[in-house]
Design goal:
heterodimer, A: about 280 residues, alpha/beta, Rossmann fold, 2 domains, six-stranded mixed sheet, 11 helices, 10 strands, about 20% strand, globular, B: about 280 residues, four-stranded antiparallel sheet, membrane (chain A), ATP-binding (chain A), ECF_ABC_transporter_ATP-bd (chain A)
Chain lengths: ~280, ~280
Amino acid sequence: MAKDSIIKIRNVSFTYPDTTSPAINNISFDIKRGSWTSIIGHNGSGKSTIIRLINGLLVPDNKNSPYIEVDGTELTDKTVWNIRDKVGIVFQNPDNQFVGATVADDVAFGLENRGVPRSKMLKIVPEAIKAVGMDDYTNAEPSNLSGGQKQRVAIAGILAIQPKIIILDEATSMLDPSGRSKILQIVHQMKKKDNLTVVSITHDIDEANLADQIIVMNNGGLVDQGNTKEIFSKVKLLKSLGLDVPFASQVKEKLLQSGISIPKEINSEKELINYLCQSNSKK
Amino acid sequence: MSIKFEKVSYTYFPGSPLEKKGLDNVSFKIKEGQFIAIIGHTGSGKSTLMQHFNALLKPSKGRIEIAGQTILPTTSNKNLKELRKHVSLVFQFPEAQLFENTVLDDIAFGPKNFGYSEQKAKEKAWTWLTRVGLPKSVANRSPFDLSGGQMRQVAIAGVMAYEPDILCLDEPAAGLDPRARKQMMGLFSKYQQEGHTVILVTHNMDDVANYANDVLVMESGKLIKHARPAEVFKDRPWLKEHYLEEPKASLFASKLTNFTFSNTPLTIKELVKGIENNLKE
């Protein structure tokens, strides 16, 4: 397990200045190389703080000897820049992450920053723009794009630097449904092609459903961890934390309440639909 | 009263190489006091349309009647304050517009700007601080010390505090957690039931199904449908053709191939009822 972990977090706590209770309270977990992990939890549960600790934007509290490792390197003052090269973060609001005068300039920014030769950039930039379906807008001004289009460009900028880990911090929450599934599809392809590790912070239950592993957070603590089937069958836990429950689980619960019996082992949407169709043909 | 658009077109950067049609000959009439949803993809003209409701953008062609005023291409910017008191726009990420030192001052800014006395504005601010679901204890804190979701609540309270007749919201619940989202949608729904008009720009078809009673569907700057939610979501091939999603409930129902539903269920309640009817027949 430990050997193929690209991210290792041990005994990490973090308290924001001028607050008394920690935003992150003694958390430990691993993320496997090449996996897709979703972190879910209500606003203020500490999801985004965790991300900022992983790329060294925030420094853990000095207690319980905290340890953070990314791609085999311990996160320290000396390695932080090296680690940030490996971690691309796409934030929720694309307006806060634009610098270039055109879409192409913006996508090239991260490469310029890293001293990539122009000849290489000329190849990488159009590819990244094409990957997010924005090739018709290569020379457009980012400010003239709609919110969803901007987010695609921001994602192209991240894809261009070819990080080891891509973190989606509610990155698809502003996209329309087709735009969202397109982005997730693109990230999926990149993940497969380059053995990219994906960490997504999301409230979107469908996005979380794509994950190999789900981490549930509440009040700065890690409440539960497991695959989608394990986590999404815990309807009571999710509800008590104010989190979304998959639609099929909600339907099942409501049907049970109105006196229709459904076996316990029926959980996924497919299982429920099959079961209902069978019951309907038997009656 | 009603909101009327007559052959409204809007062109971005007219006469320049960047010229682009934002709205293309849009006409409709909607009754005030309703919960109206505007749907369509990214870039379809939803936000451009919304910005016409309080003349933030003025039509390049055509005519708009709203809140007892008429907006024409020639309307001067001078007398728009009255219109903007009655018709408010809340953009995506309104929390980016917070600026005051305390939460209470930020909420009171809108009412003060529209002529309420200092004291009256503070009273309104207290009322709306609690109505949007913020704890009273945050009133004297800096809005910038709050969580993203709470900052959103402050920004929305700041607009609702001067109680506009027509409240237009662009994806107000995006990025909120499910509990906060439900609470916020409930707030807008209640506001509408109290006699105001709520116009919601959204991608979330479940919100459309649960709250709206009138829907405008935009595509490439054109209004391609204006109907009640049941009507919009009834026609599955049409939705597919226009790449529009449907509510989770109707999607689920469509997979129950040997069930018959007299009306396409749009909400989980209707779906469960429909399943029950089939199984108990």
